Amino acid sequence: GDVADGEGIPEDAKGLLMNAQILILGGHLLQVSDHVESFGMGSLTQGNNVSIVLMTDSQPETDALYNKLMDGGDKRTPPQDMGFGYYAEGSDKFGINWMFYNTLEG
């Protein structure tokens, strides 16, 4: 849904897609969003326009995957409770963007 009043949303993010989810074959979930520089994603360039999202089964799994994949990379958001779930993000040493998400239930 839409953010009712846009409070706390940076100007460059207003009107953009924050998160959309599509259930595809085999029960896999495809998630998409727009690239927003003010969210710490940097300038849009070929290579950083895609992020891989890992939906983990537990917080310890999130921590372990984050630490392994971010070794030598850019740890933008360390694993933490973000209100909507346990979340982390960054870029690996090859420049691939990763997001990690757990629903706080595991």
Core attributes:
106 residues; mainly beta; four-stranded mixed β-sheet; two-stranded antiparallel sheet; 1 helix
Structure description:
With 106 residues, this protein is mainly β. The protein contains 1 helix and 6 strands; from the N terminus they run E-E-E-H-E-E-E. The strands form 2 sheets. Strands 3-6-5-4 form a 4-stranded mixed beta sheet, covered by helices on one side. Strand 1 (20-23) and strand 2 (29-32) form a beta hairpin. The chain is globular and about 35 Å long.
Q: What structural class is derived from the secondary structure elements?
A: mainly beta
| Average predicted confidence as pLDDT | 80
The global form is: globular
Please trace the helix and strand order, writing H or E for each element. EEEHEEE
- Helix content estimate: 10-25%
Q: What summary fits the major beta sheet?
A: 4 strands, mixed
Count of DSSP helices?
Answer: 1
From the alpha carbons, calculate the radius of gyration and give it in angstroms: 14 Å
Separation of the first and last Cα atoms:
26 Å
Low-pLDDT runs: none
Strand order of the largest sheet: 3-6-5-4
Count all strands and give the number.
Answer: 6
Percentage beta strand: 25-35%
Describe the structure concisely for a colleague.
By secondary structure, this protein is mainly beta. Helices cover 10% and strands 31% of the residues.
Strands, helices and their partners?
Blueprint: E1 20-23, E2 29-32, E3 51-55, H1 59-69, E4 74-81, E5 86-91, E6 97-102
Parallel strand pairs: 3-6
Antiparallel strand pairs: 1-2, 4-5, 5-6
